[in-house]
Each structure stands twice: as structure tokens, then as C-alpha cells.
User: Fold this.
Amino acid sequence: MTQTIGAAAAIMMILRGVLLAVGVLAAVGAGIAWGVRTRRLGPFTWAGRFARRWVDPLLAPVERFLLRTGGHATSAPWWGLVILLVAGMLLLSAVQAFAGVVLQVMWVAGHPSQAPVLVLSWVFMILRLALIVRVLVSWIPASPYAWWVRWSYRLTEWLLRPLRAVVPLFGAVDVTPVVAYFLLWLVQSLLHIP
Assistant:
């Protein structure tokens, strides 16, 4: 078990280092591409050639999306950097969650009486994740029927529907997912589930 924890920690450290290096390179590339797009750097200098050859092909999908939604092509490098940073954080979180699940399963293999507690812990974790997905999806124009969103609506609507009858709207902001998140946390802590 100790070796597994050490291996997981080493993998996380290596992944963090790689993602940090990729983030720094992406920030430099975004800065150069932004400088070329805003004419702060010449388009025929080494920076312009670098941006056209290496950065612009990577930013093409982001630029198309921005132009379709009424944005400016000059902000594509910064939006691309934000997308890359969020993807890196999600990757780190997913790897850390997977390592945690593996360690939990290994621990429960030695303590079979704790299996129901582990399953309840996973249920609370999945419900909180579904609430987070619903909140993030509400910020972008996405259909609740999209394949990557539908699961979160199915898992959380039973909890949010009664809360909407009790919790008022704050302007146009629906705070029931936040209330539900804290209710889940409260129930989990009252049941002493890790």
C-alpha cells in the first residue's frame, strides 16, 4: 500500500511538472500570437513566422468559435490559453480522483466491512460532480440534452426540483445547485462518511 501511494505521488509530481511546462510554453506562444494579431509585433519577424507556423493552427478551432459567437480573433490566443489551463486542471483532478479510487479500493479489500461506507462516499462524490457540471454548463450555451451533460441532469434533478420551490432566485441567478452542494456536504458530514 505504501509503495502504491509513493508511485501515485511520483506520477502526480511528474504530471504537474509536464503540465506546468506545457502551460508556460502555451503562455509564451499565446503572448507572441496576441502580439502579432494586435500588431504589437511585426508579422514578418521571427515572432510572426513562429505564430503563423506553430500557434495559429492550434488556435483555429478557438478562433472559429469566437467568430461564430461574435468575439474578436485577437482574443483567441488568450481564450486558447484559458481552455488549455482548464483542461490541465481537469486532467490533474481526474488522475488524482482515479488514484484516490484505486487507493480506496485497495484499503477496502483489507477492510470489507467498510465497503458500504466507500460506496456511499462515491455516491456523494458523483452527485457533487454532477452539480458542478450543471453549474459550468449553465455558463455556456449548451443543451441539457447533449450527451456529455444529460447524465448530470438525470442525477441531480430529483434534488434540485424541490429546492427550487423553497430557494428564491437572486435576479436571474439560480442558486439551488449551490444550496444542494452544501446540503450534500452537510448530510455526508452528519453521516460521518469520508
About this structure: The first helix runs from residue 2 to 37. The mean pLDDT is 89. DSSP finds six helices and no strands in the chain.
